[in-house]
Every structure is written in C-alpha cells, then in structure tokens.
Specification:
By secondary structure, the protein is α+β, with helices and mostly antiparallel strands. Among the domains are: about 90 residues, Sandwich (Tumour Suppressor Smad4), CATH 2.60.200.20; about 80 residues, no CATH class; about 130 residues. The protein has 15 helices and 11 strands. The chain has a 6-stranded antiparallel beta sheet, with helices on one face. β1 and β2 form a beta hairpin. The longest helix is centred in the middle third of the chain and has 45 residues. The protein starts with a strand and ends in a 5-residue tail after the last helix.
C-alpha cells in the first residue's frame, strides 16, 4: 500500500493506492480530481503493480514535472519523489510498516560437508532408547530419519488405530465452530456499536479531516451522519462548525488557485520588469507607461491578490509620471510593441491591436514611422509563424505531442491573423484519431478540455477560431 500526498491551492490531502491504476485529471472521468490550471480532463495515470509505481502521461498533455524535470511519456517513481501537474504537487510516501526490500540472495556455492552431530550423553539409556519392533531391522547409520521422527510416527499410528473419538478429534471439530461463532458475535456487536455511535464517530472523523484540511474526507464523514436532528445539541453545533470550515477552506483554495496565475504575472510582468527596466536613476517615460498598463491589467484580473499592497505602492510611485488616458508618442508605442514581442510566446495579436489603434489617431512624421513599424512587424510575424509551425512538426516527430499541440495553440492564440490562426487550427485537428508517438489514438477533445479548464486565456481565442469552432460542433468536447 502506498500513500500519496496532494498539495494544491493551499490545501493538502492524502490518499492510499493498492494494486491498480489511478487516473488523474480535472474531469469527471478522473479518479483523482485536480483543480489546478493546465490539467487536462484525464492528464496522467499512476500504475501501482508489484510494489512498482509508474507515472504515465496521456498523449498530448503538458508534460508532468518529476522532481522538476518534464517527462514525455512514462517514468518510474519511488517513495520520497514528487511530481507536478499544473499547480498541484503530488508526493509519494512509503506506507508505515511496509516491508523492507528482501536481502539479495547469495550466489550458490558448492555444498559444504555436513557438520558432525554432537549428541549429549543420555542419562538413562533404557528409558530413552527406542527398541526396534520384532521383524524390523534397526535404522541404518546415516539414514535421514531421526529418533524424534520415529516417535512422531508411532504417536500418529496410535492416534488412529482405535475406533472412537479422541480428545484431539473433539478439539479439531470445536475450533472451526468456535471461530465462526466468534465472528458472528463480533459482527453483531459491531453493528450495534456502529448504529449507536455512528453520529459521534462521524463528527469526530469530520473534525479530524477538517483539521488536516482534507475537505473531501470531512464532507464524506458528515454525509454519513444522515439526519443530524437525531444528534445532541453539542454534536449538531460541532457538525455546523465543520461545515463552516469546509466552506471557508474551499473558498480559500479556489482563491489560491485563481491567484496562482496572478503570482506568475506579478513576477514576470511586473517585478522582473521593474528590476530590469526601472532600476536606473533615469526612468524612461515609455517604460513607465508599459509598466502602468500592466499594473492596470493586474488590478482588473486579480483584485483580491494577496500582493495587492505591493501593486498599489508601485502605482502611487510611477502613476504620476504618465497619463494613460492620452495617446502615447511613437516612442511609447514602439517600446510597447517590442515589449509584447520579445517574450515567449510572442503576442503579435496584442501588438497589432495597439499599433493599429495608435495609427488611427496619429499623423505627420510620427504616422510615417508607425507605418514603417507596421511593415516590419508583419515581416517578423511571418518568419515567426513559419518557424513555430516547423517546430510543432519537429516536436511531434520527437514524440513530444504536448509541446507540438502547445505550439499550434500559441499560433492560433497569438498570431493575430485569421489566415495564420486557421492554418494552425487545421494542423491541430489533424491530430484527432491519429496514432500518438507513444502509442494509442489521440483524442483531441481531451486536449481541448484541458485548455478550457486550465488555460482560459488561450481558450477564449481558440473557441472563437472558425476552423476549431466548426470541428467542435461535429465533435462536441463534452461527450
């Protein structure tokens, strides 16, 4: 029996697995359900067999991280190791009392000479020696039979040579009857105890599970109580308190899961940006303008993030330097466009939106610079699109189906061009039903469900794509 610990969304829960397969994912078909972003409906399997634990990733999913390293297909795990799916971390613990591995069998050697038998002196030979029966030859020297074995055989023959029931026979008959009666009585007693103590026991178990923040187990224990009106006033109050803790704990977990995406945005788009671009004595206005636009986006998407005080302090410091209600200069727009296309993945969709919106109100020399920037951006996007399309094909040939699908999703989401998005979508739907590099048929619906539940920024654009939308009408992903 192996124990697994799941850390997700600020809560910790455990489960045990014996021989068999445990499916992990975000959908109804998963035995172990995760709420983390980036987890497909059925993302991976844990196979426990003969004391060996194997983690098997489903084709096309984002690869799990095993002790920080991604795996593409399957990996053998051991107690003490952990792996990560989305924002959830699953650790493996050896069950207490598990048997230690057997010592290695020594290599065979030539049989050693038998040790000489040392016999103690017999005080009374007449009493201890067993005389052979008439007609029977004495036991030859070197024969394997011992005197103890002779005595046992003689006792056995004497036991059965007479008719009738011996005391040993009675004992042999009574033992099974006594065992059966014991278990029947125990079962009846247990039933009475369970019937009379079910409510208090389940309240206690629910409190224990809630104290360990294992909300599923706490809810299950409360559900077994049935009619709470039959409980005492004190037990009813304790059960209600567990209800409150479960509700608050789940809300905190959901908030932590939602804020996990905010954590990433805060670090990469705000904190790293400030450290790299705003650390000098002289602050560039175009840089501050981009920083303030990112702060505004963070406030809109994660208003209850625990680091909001840090965001407000930065807003108070840099806010007076720029006015986001007025159009920026060409220098402002040029830097903003660059900041959107130096990241991986490049966000050409937003870059073109910003530049085209600015061109609608600009004029003179600055407009001419903006048009030249537009031409440059178009050329860069074409090169990027062709390169990423080839990379998706390369990853598929390597057996990295998850990375291949991810690059096609990036092209659909961030190219900002309908023809390019449709081309990537056409390549994506070709995966459905084809053979995965690691074996088995690819079910594209599993991948799309994963993007819908775990990557909403991608999904919003992907479901609006005309090619994918038409395909999903014929292949509903909720079936």
């Amino acid at each position: 029996m192996t124990r697994f610990i799941v850390d997700e969304g600020g809560k910790r829960r455990g489960f045990k697995a014996s021989e068999g397969v445990v499916t992990i994912g975000s959908g109804e078909r998963a035995m172990l359900k995760l709420a983390s972003a980036g987890v497909a409906e059925v993302h991976a399997e844990l196979v426990v067999k003969g004391g060996v634990i194997q983690l098997k990733a489903k084709p096309g999913v984002v690869p799990p991280l095993v002790d920080g390293a991604p795996i593409s297909s399957e990996c053998t795990l051991a107690p003490g190791m952990s792996f990560k799916l989305g924002e959830a971390t699953i650790s493996i613990e050896a069950e207490a009392g598990a048997a230690a591995p057997a010592a290695p069998t020594p290599a065979p050697h030539a049989p050693a000479a038998p040790a000489p038998v040392v016999r103690k002196p017999v005080a009374s030979p007449a009493k201890s020696a067993v005389a052979p029966k008439a007609g029977k030859a004495p036991i030859p020297a070197g024969k394997a039979d011992t005197r103890e074995k002779q005595a046992w055989e003689r006792s056995s023959r004497e036991l059965y040579k007479d008719k009738g029931i011996k005391p040993l026979h009675v004992l042999l008959l009574l033992v099974p009857v006594a065992v059966i009666a014991f278990f029947l009585l125990k079962r009846g007693a247990s039933q009475k105890i369970d019937d009379s103590l079910s409510g208090p026991q389940q309240v206690f178990l629910a409190e224990k599970a809630a104290a360990e923040t294992v909300w599923d187990q706490a809810e299950e224990a409360l559900a077994k109580i049935g009619d709470r009106s039959k409980l005492s006033t004190d037990l009813q109050a304790r059960a209600q308190e567990v209800d409150r803790k479960i509700k608050e704990g789940r809300a905190a977990g959901a908030l932590a899961a939602a804020n996990s995406a905010g954590d990433k945005y805060l670090q990469t788009q705000l904190k790293n940006f400030e450290e790299q671009r705003l650390a000098g004595a002289k602050v560039d206005r175009a840089v501050v303008r981009v920083f303030m636009k990112r702060i505004t986006e963070f406030e809109r998407r994660w208003p209850n993030h625990p680091d909001m005080d840090w965001v407000r302090r930065k807003k108070e410091r840099y806010g007076p330097m720029v006015d986001l209600t007025k159009p920026g200069s060409y220098a402002d727009i040029e830097f903003e466009v660059k900041s959107m296309t130096w990241d991986n993945p490049r966000n050409y969709r937003e870059a073109f939106l910003v530049l085209n919106r600015w061109l609608e109100t600009s004029g003179g020399d600055e407009r001419g610079k903006g048009l030249a920037l537009l031409d440059k951006l178009i050329k860069e996007r074409e090169e990027w699109f062709d390169d990423r399309l080839q990379e998706a094909a390369h990853q598929y040939k390597k057996g990295q189906l998850g990375q291949s699908i991810q690059w096609l999703a990036v092209l659909i989401t961030y190219s900002g061009d309908d023809a390019m998005s449709n081309r990537a979508a056409q390549d994506l739907i070709k995966f459905h039903g084809s053979e995965a590099p690691t074996g088995g048929a690819i079910d594209l619906r599993d991948q799309l469900r994963g993007y819908r539940s775990g990557l909403p920024d991608y999904w919003k654009v992907m479901e609006a794509n005309s090619v994918l939308a038409a395909w999903m009408r014929e292949n509903p992903i909720d079936e």
